[in-house]
Amino acid sequence: MHGDRPLSNATFDSNVLFNCKMVVCASTCGRAGTATDVTIFSACMGADALEGNSMKSENGLSKVPEVTLTFWVIKIAATTLGETGGDAVSMTLNWGYAFSSAMFIGIFAMAVAAQIAARSFHPFLYWAVIIATTTAGTTMADFADRSLGVGYPGGSLILLTLLMASLGIWYWRAGSISVDTVASPRIEMFYWAAILFSQTLGTALGDWMADSNGLGYERGALVFAAGLVVVAAAYFYTKVSRTLLFWSAFILTRPLGATVGDFLDKPVANGGLAFGRFYASAILAALIVACIVFLPQRAGKHPESTQEI
Q1: Which of 168, 206, 249, 292 could staple 255 via S-S, CB 3.0–4.6 A?
Q2: Can you give the pTM of this predicted structure?
Q3: What is the residue extent of each domain of the chain?
């Protein structure tokens, strides 16, 4: 599902400002024609060109992948891996939720720094950051529920507030929260903050459904899968905002992955398959690598590189 591609106010304003600078500098050179004026004109042009280039990745392409069926397959596998991997560290290794959360947040910070610094889309790097958000989301949601005692409803409300705040700031700065606006380091930071909060929110929702509401892992997974079917139907048969549908699907895939992950590693007596967290994580990691290698992904395009507004 693709996000909407409006021409953001930030993009429009920057283009207008750039063109105005060109006119002013050109007129200055035209009036005087001195070497100093030519130098000023070159400096103006060079600074704006450098700023423009730093805002974009190579070839006018985004550093996030095109949203296709392959994207969603890897996304669900990555969220499931985040559940089994996060639980493996915090529970199986018994490192605790607080320490595990701090560790995974640190890993996320390093991975997202490398992603933002990259000049183009690198599938393995992008999905490494996604997995970092899912593992951090798993331990953070468990920490909020079990260590802080706020419960899944309280944790979900806090995380929903943080997600809405991050999306609101993103919209205020870019004029859209479409993934197609991820064309600068600043906007990319908003993008990853929203993803981290959405992954953590999805974990809390998944655990709330499966554990607190008594649905169990299988029925909980079916509930979220049904939600994704509804979103897909809205995408194909309605004119509902593609951006809204994208973020709805993105959030719903996380609790789906959480319940599937619990189903894989929980004991048979608790309704699971008892694969073991490390074994299940290894299988999921191998699946993700295979998908990246054999199902190549293309980088998405920046708004100004497309014909859609």
Answers
A1: 206
A2: 0.76
A3: 53-305
